[in-house]
Task: structure prediction
Amino acid sequence: MPKNRKKPMHFQGSLTKRNYFEGWYYKQVSQDGDITLALIPGVSLFEGDQHSFIQYILSYRSEAGEKDLVTGYVRYPVESFTFQKNPFKVQVGKSIFTEKKIFLDLKDQERLFQGTIELHTLTPIETDIYSPTIMGPFAYFPKMQCNHGVISMDHDIMGTIQMNDQSLKFNYGRGYIEKDWGTSFPEEYIWVHCNTFATRETSLFFSIAHIPFLGRSFQGHIGNLLIKKKQYRFATYNGTKLSELQQKGKEVSFVAENKEAKLTVRAMPDLEKELIAPVKGKMERIIKEGVTGKVSFELFDKKTGEVYKDHGKAAGIEVVIEENANKNKLSIKHRDPETKSQ
Result:
């Protein structure tokens, strides 16, 4: 296992790789939840189109008070991507991303972003030899199609980003960091993240995906829930069973259960806009993501008997599945929005 794999924040690849991608996902939400800015610095090493990039998705209220969601993909030469391990830093163009700060200087045809956001006291996931990352033992396999890392479940943020003539203020807001690297995103997947629940310092990450593995494929899931400084892990590799996976209209719901706890999740996307995802290292696949969704959960802790319920806003949600129920590779049940729950 490469040494870097135990520290997924670090650059896992090299600029000599072919048909490879790597990207970091920094999500920032303002204190009132009205502004969400997700930034994705990364590198695409598809042969013949090597480049670095910063992708963004922004939810905000315009100066007229109207709610809006915008996205953008800014390309740079591959030489504009630099990195270092200690202290960690990734730079694309003039923008710099570290474990303590984001310095943003980003311009496309419509928007100029400039400013600094400070990141305070990251909350990493719990790890051990069996699970050195959120991928568990799959982290030891070098040729996974897509590797995932959760860097910080939740942290305080401070700062302001100037977008054209408008100030995006993030003082006393919430932050989250994850990343992906490999060749391609899963063919079908569901991804949910929220750390702006009614109870502060509560954060939920969950992903369900169709995963190719050693010439075959399977449906796998990974998830982590942070409540009152305690973490609950839900994953295929720790015996968690996934049931009642269904989609009713835009809402996705499921139940994850293991010997420690039972978790019920409902995720409702709101506005969605197009982002670019990798296929064999090439950034060309169009997916849709929202950062204004709503998430609710109920957790039953089998050891203590306690029940936790919460609901959150400004959730990041992606549902990338085949619309034809007879063809989708995830075991998801499609239900009519008018059908009442049994």
Q: What stands out?
A: The radius of gyration is 19 Å.
